[in-house]
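Go through this chain for my students:
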Amino acid sequence: MARIRHLNFLFLLFFCRLPLAAQDVHFSQFHHAPLSLNPALAGAFDEDQRFAATYRNQWGSVPVPYETIFGAYDQKVFLPWLGDNWLGVGGTFTYDQAGDASLNWLQLALHGAFNWRAADEHVLSAGMQLRFGQRALEPGQFNFADQFTDSFFDPGALTAESFTATSSGYFSLGAGVNWFYQPEGTRTRIWLGLGATHLNQPSVSFLNDGKVELPMLFNLNALGFVELTERWDLAVNLLGQQQGTYQEMIGMGGARYHVSQEKGKELALQLGAGYRLSDAVVGYMDVYYKNWRLGLSYDINTSAFMAATNRNGGPEFSIQYLISHVKPPKEFKACPIF
């Protein structure tokens, strides 16, 4: 076991020198974590305030499972001089951890977007993101080859292995654009956007022999649902991402049934499935209850890595809570007094 951990350590050091070490987190339920995709999605929704959280546990059956926690908040800001347009502001929190040495990312980001109502049913938005990140590990959890004495392993033995630093921080800039289609009188909603992160290509390293630049991450996303009948909707979510030599393409589709549409008692259930290209098949279920959005998904690994995972990808849970403010009437009419 000690030799295996030593190999894991060498594997970690090797990839810390490559751009692939900079891969950002990803979700199967990316439609429930829009601010993880594009800052232009801040404020691009029907309601006025949105709270969101996602938890993902990936590859729990292997020695180095991945655990990710994501939280977000955004809201609309209306100003008199903006007319029918508005600002979207928000923030996100991301924590990702994996491996014996608790290799982790901590990321905090601020998002701002300008939403321009180009027509009654069309909103165009452009957004910016400022992100602070820190990468850290705990090398004390490792065992090394020089702790073997006469073929016996001594966990208390001193080792010559050392790190210049066990954490590294960075600032990152992101930007994006989005088109939001919201026809009045129907449930149909469509978002189509292009986002980019790490535009300044910040550096991260645990070693003193050079810096590792984070490659820029680009993504193209299409999210939405189309009203088919009085009670049925079709949901389709597509995402393509590229970061350095790493690529991800995932498509999700599902059907939503509105059990109750009574005001204050709204309830809808959605079932669907998707496929992450050359990686995993995903099944998911969403519950829409009043202002709540609850999601559960599970990945079944299909890549060559399934030899280690036994096809187990991992569960993912998501939750959203949305708040709508009462709007004053556009026209005020006084009642006549008799």
Summary: The longest helix spans residues 2-16. Residues 2-323 form a domain with the Porin fold (CATH 2.40.160.40). The chain has one domain: 2-323. Residues 68 and 336 are 60 Å apart (CA to CA).
